[in-house]
Amino acid sequence: MKRNLLYLFAAALLTLTGVACTEEPLSDISVIQDSQREENEFDRWITAHYTIPYNIEYKYRMEDIESDMNYNLIPADYIKAKQLALLTIHLCLGAYDEVTGSRAFIAENFPKMIHVIGSPAVRNDGSIVLGTAEGGQKISLYSTNYLRLDSIQFLNYWYFHTMHHEFGHILNQKKPYSADFKALSAKDYRSDSWISLAVNEDDALKLGFITAYASSEPGEDFVELISVYVTETQEQWEERLRKAMPDNPDDEINGKDLIEAKFEIVYNYMLDSWNIDLTALRETVQQRQATINTLDFNF
Ligand SMILES: [Zn+2]
Predict the structure, then answer these.
(1) Which of 48, 212, 247, 281 is at a distance of 20 to 30 A from 94, taking alpha carbons?
(2) Ligand 1 geometric centre to CA of 236 (Å)
């Protein structure tokens, strides 16, 4: 089964690892699977807002069969799982609905299961898994118990960048992108060694990668371009391009030109293959990001 991992060698690693290793009290409401369990209010909300409109299962209880046993994981807190469920519709699914004019695109293409997990998943090499997508059918999101509503940067970093990233992989699996994309940075991808070489974000930009993780392989590069573009503002995008400019005009690689050339392929792919204008999608996501304080999480 193909599995895509978006992971990060974070400066905050030690802190997070520490957090991951401490024992956490469970919330009052049990999220442990009980085969006889009765539906609660949230389950009914999920049926109305995920199952019926999108045929998506939003799973917040911990079930061994659905989680990766390589990690020592903690279930999602009930309140945080509810918040993330509403935010996912507001910032991701609903944004696609708005630009495509219906829920059909998400219902047809989005993975059939979103599984939220309370704790981060820390790999043996020390990197942190932000999310996984398996076989186009399931997206797992970690660190739900750290969800905060007061910072859009935080929400993007931990959840929504990951969601757009993983969804990008799924779209690519359904409709491949042109081989021209792979040729542009062909000699500069570094597979898993992007971690050991500790490519920092600024160096990555100079090499023509929108993030350090984008330098791992073409598939990651492609979806990082989608994800960063959609979740960040025009100003943030331009700031990245500015940092990507060569220090010296004679430099062999012009990171800005490379990123722009790759992004043009990404933009045209989304438009031609999926009829999605990434600029319109970004505008919608930005408007929605600005209104999360109007959402009612008491459902
Ligand atoms: Zn990925």
Answers:
(1) 212
(2) 21
Compute, in angstroms, the gap from residue 161 CA to the centroid of ligand 1. 11
Q: Which residues contact 180 (CB under 8 A, 6 or more apart)?
A: 265
Residue 294 in 3-state DSSP? helix
pTM (2 d.p.): 0.83
Q: Residues 145, 118: contact at Cβ < 8 Å?
A: yes
Compute, in angstroms, the gap from residue 34 CA to the centroid of ligand 1: 33
**Residue 136 — left, alpha, or beta (φ > 0 → left; ψ -120 to 50 → alpha)?**
left
Q: How far is the CA of 170 from the centre of ligand 1 (A)?
A: 10
Pick from 2, 285, 266, 11: which is nearest to 132 by CA?
Answer: 2
Whole-Å CA distances, 53 to 40, 59, 110, 295: 19, 16, 12, 19
Quickly name the fold that domain 3-294 has.
Collagenase (Catalytic Domain) (3.40.390)
Measured in Å, residue 251 CA sits from the centre of ligand 1 at: 29
Give 40-75 pLDDT, tens digit per residue.
999 999 999 999 999 999 999 976 555 565 677 889
Domain edges within the chain? 3-294
Residue 131: φ, ψ to 5°: -170, 160
Of the candidates 281, 271, 169, 153, the residue with the CA atom closest to the CA atom of residue 221:
169
Ramachandran category for residue 138: left, alpha or beta (phi over 0 → left; psi -120 to 50 → alpha)? beta
- 79-132 per-position pLDDT tens digit: 999 999 999 999 999 999 999 999 999 999 999 999 999 988 887 777 777 777
DSSP 91: I
155: helix, coil or strand?
helix
DSSP state of 47: I
